[in-house]
Every structure is written in structure tokens, then in C-alpha cells.
TrEMBL record:
The organism's place on the tree of life at top rank: Bacteria
GO CC annotations, alphabetized: plasma membrane
Compartments it resides in: Membrane
Transmembrane domains' residue ranges: 46-62, 82-102, 114-132, 138-159, 171-193, 199-221, 241-259, 265-283, 304-329, 335-357, 369-389, 395-419, 440-458, 470-490
Protein name as it appears in the record: Major facilitator superfamily protein
UniProt cross-references to InterPro entries, sorted A to Z: MFS (IPR011701), MFS_dom (IPR020846), MFS_trans_sf (IPR036259), Tet-R_TetA/multi-R_MdtG-like (IPR001958)
Topology relative to the membrane: Multi-pass membrane protein
Amino acid sequence: MRRFWPHRFRLLDWTGRLIHDRHEAAMTYTEAERVDWRALWASGDLARFCFISLGILLHATNETMVATVMPAMVGDLSGVELVGWSLAVYEIGAITAGAAAGRMVSYVPLRTNMMAAALLYAAGALICAMAPSMPVFLAGRVVEGLGGGALVSLAFVSVERLFRRNIWPQLFGVMSAIWGVAAFSGPLIGALLSQYFSWRWAFGLFVFGGLAMAIACYAVLRSPEATTRKATGTGLPPFPFAALACLAASVLLIALAGVDIEMLRSSLFLASGLAGLALFFLLDARKPRSRLFPTRPFDPRSAVGSGMIMVFAFSVATCSFALYGPLILTTLHDIPLLTTGYIIAAESISWSILSILVANAPPRSERTIIIIGALMIAAGIAGFAHAVPLGSVPLILFCAVLQGGGFGIAWPFVTRVIVATADPTESTVASSGVPTMQRIGYAVGAAMTGIIANAVGFSEGLSAETSAGVASWIFLAFLPLGLIGCLAAVKLTRHSRALPA
């Protein structure tokens, strides 16, 4: 699935702050002391770290794989009206676990944490692989999200705890490579296993991967730093249980609005879910020590507010192809799953390549780059509305590259402006708030896409006729959000003029 994966590029640094982009993770350390790769391997640090990073590979590959197994899975389990939930519930689990994992090492040793997360992930994959119905599959996705989100967070915690500071640049470089491999291999693995074996084997593969991760953690993490609790000199900040519970309930209410479309019932669920989201941000603002976002995160009069609006709008608006693209293309045009896998992989790869190409752009160009990136994303959304019903693979591929590339060139600079213009006391919160907002946007976008898809046809079942009705509307309905994202980008660039070059 796409682009739910860009969040896959959002990583934690050793302090627990989320790094904005996987390429930023590498660039942050380009001036640090370099270590010879042969010496790093000979010391055993690189081999040990590769075992630890297996958790990142499991999480990222699974996340990118799901879109290409969806057509076969829906054909077996039915429940096409619940497709949007597969992302929404996964993101809820990942957000919650990612927020908790960094603090859990103060209560439980790192090795125990990582083993538990790996086993939880394996259990979720097993539930998905054995699921007799869509609701059971979704329960497995929640468990997978909890395990995968924790594994990613703990992998970055392990860098700070287990490895020398002077080799952190190389280790973060390995992580960047892992995300790139996952972005390309995930959709292809899902397509190949679904086409030649069964979609269940795609999840079964991750059962073995989770178990292997748990065994590797037990065998490799034997140092005192990994087997003892992390001492803290100050009390832990409170965990935002109430805010995250409110967020989870809100997304589920929005998703429920689209399961069985009835005007009164659906309107009540949707209104309740949106009100719950507003309550989540209010609860978050009332807890300064555990807050997930800076002050007034949606105030368009500030750079932080404009940037967060842009992040949220585009994250919500770009879930459609990742969720329903392979399903519609396979049902409506008989396009092979392997082809859809290549398209999804191309979107992720274009994100990565263009992000690298613009990384060294001069500061005077960043405003132009942000606006161009926003326009590319909006153009990709509009293009999908024409290309997917038409079934033109080259045109669909172009739209995917356009959308992924737009994110790739804009996101590093958007994040820089948000963090640079935030109150100095909230810079860390602003930094971590960008990927968190993106995850929330994906969860809400998945739920909203499900509502639209069911309202215009999929509530009647999966067929060529219903797919034809859904194909345009799941993209056209989000064009207003694409416009909002572009306007927010313009506002953001106006605020960025005050920044020093």
C-alpha cells in the first residue's frame, strides 16, 4: 500500500524524537566520524545490529505488502466494505505502541521488550493468516500494529543503549537501506505469494519472521544494557492514555459510519468521530508533559499550523489508491497483482529518489520546492480519478510517481519549517508531531475512503459494476482536501520567509 508507507520513513532518533525523514536520518550524521565498514563488521556490531533491525524490516514490508494481497483476501473472506479498516486499525495500534515503547524500557529490560513485541507481531500475523472472516482479520491487524510499532521504536532505542556513538551514522544508514528494501519488496512479495500460493502464506511468512526476531533478540541481546532496566533520574512523563483512547475511538466511529450506509446512522457516527478527534486535540493540549503536538496545531496564522494542516490534508487525501487501487484494477481491468505491486513500489521509490535529489537544494529554493511538491501530490490525486477507471497502466504509474515524488521533495522542507518556526520549548514536540499527524491522517483517510467506497457501490459487494462506480469517486471526493493542502503549502512558504537562510 503506498503511502501509508511514507510514515514508514518516519523514524525515532536515539533521544526518542522522531526523525522527519529516513534520508534526514542519514544526513543528520554526515559530518560525524566515519567508521570503516570492514572494521564495523569485524567488531560484530554491524551483524548484531542487523538482527535488531529485522523488526524494522518486518514492520515495513508487512505494511507495504497488504495492498497487493487485498484482492485475493476479499475474494476469500468477503467483507469488501471493511477494507478501509485494515489500515485504520493497524495505524491505531502502531501509534499507541510507538508512543509507549520508548518509555517501557524504564520498566522492563530492552531485550524483554523486543521479544514481547516480536511475539505480539507474530501472533497478529498468525491471526491474519488463519482468519475465517474479515472481523477476525482486522483483530489480527490491531495486534500486528501494536507489535510492529513497538519493534520500530525499540530498534532506535537500541542504537542509543547498545552501540558506540561514533558508529551511529552507519547504523542509521543501514536503517535507511532497510526501509528502501521494504518499500520495493513488500508489494512484490504480497503479489507473488497471492498469485502463486495463497494470500494466507503472505501473512504466514511474517509469523515465522516474528518468531525468528524473538529468538534473535534472546540470542543476541545479552549485554547488561539490554538485560537491565534503564535507570532514570527524573520521573517519567505521564503516558497519554486518555488522549490515545479518544483517538482510537474516534477513528473507529468514523470507520463504523461507512460499514452499513444509512443516512441517519452514518451521519451520527461520522459526526461523533469528528467530534472525538477535536476532543483528542483538546485532551492533548491539556497535558503539556505528555502532549503529542505543539500549541494550536491547526492555527493557519502560524507556520506550525499551516504545516500541520498540509500534512494532515495530504495524508487523508492520498490513502485511496493504496487501499483500493489493486482491488479495483484487478476486478475491473484484470490487471495482474504483480503489476499493481510494481506500481505501488514505484510510488515509494520515487519518494525516496526525489527526496535524495533535492536534499542539498539551497534554502532560497525551499519555498518553490514545497509548492511544486504540493501541486504534484494534488495532480496525482486528480490523475488517479481519470487513470484508474480508464485502466491505463502507464498513466496510473505516472500518477503514482507524481504523488510519491511530490511527497519526497516537499516533506523534508515542510518539516524543517515547522520545527524551525515552533516555539523553542516545543521544538521536539513539533518534530515528533509531524509523523504522528501523518499516521493519524492515514488512519482517518482509510476510514473516510471506506465510507465513500461503500456509499457509491461496495456496500453491495465486489463486482466489475460496483468497482466501476467506486473507481473515480474515491479520488474525486478528496480533491477538496488536496486543494486545502496546496493552500496550506502557500501559507507555509509565506511564513518561511522569516527564517534565516
